[in-house]
Amino acid sequence: MPSALLLDLYPQIRLAHIGFVAASGTLFTARAIATMAGARWSASRAARRASWLIDTGLLAAALLLLYVLQLNPFVVPWLAAKLALLLVYIGLGTMALRRARSTTSRLAWSIAALACFGMMVSIARAHDPLGILRSWLG
After folding, report:
1. Are residues 60 and 77 in the same domain?
2. What whole-number distance in Å separates Cα of residue 51 and Cα of residue 88?
3. Is residue 66 located within the same domain as residue 76?
4. CB-CB contact of 96 with 110 (8 Å)
C-alpha cells in the first residue's frame, strides 16, 4: 500500500508524467524533422542525453503512478495496450532517427512513430485499449 505522502503527491506525479509525455513527443518530433533536414544536432550527444533524461523521468513518473494507484499493467487492458505500443514506438523511433537512410523512409518511420505516440496518448486519455478508435468504430 502506498504511503500517505505518495497519495498526497498523486496530482503532482500525474502532472509530471503528462509534462514528460509532452516533452518526449516534442523532442522526438524536433529531432525527426532535424534529421530529415540533415541537421547534425539531432544525433548529438546533447540531444540523445536530453531524450534519455526526459524518457527516464517519464518512466519514473509512470512507475510511481502504477504504484500509487496499485495498477498492474499486465492485468489492466488499456495499460497493457499502452505498454505494447510503447515497444512498437521505440522500434519505430529508432528506425526514424538512426537506421533509415533516405529522407523518404525517415519520413515514413517518423509518421508511423508519431501515429503510435498519438495512439498511446489516446489510450491513456480514454482508459480504453482502442483509444480514439473506439469512437470511430461506434
Report:
1. no
2. 17
3. no
4. yes
Length of the chain: 138
Distances (CA, A) of 63 to 16, 85, 99: 12, 17, 30
Domain total of the chain: 2
pTM strictly above 0.90: yes
Q: For the chain, which residues score pLDDT lower than 70? A: none
Q: Do 53 and 104 lie in a common domain?
A: no
The verdict on 54 and 14 lying in the same domain is: yes
Count Cβ atoms below 10 Å from residue 134 Cβ, excluding itself. 13
117 CB-contact burial (10 Å; exposed 0-12 / middle 13-18 / buried 19+): buried
One-letter amino acid of 128:
D
102-138: pLDDT as tens digits:
999 999 999 999 999 999 999 999 999 999 999 998 7
Q: Which residue has the cell 534529421?
A: 35
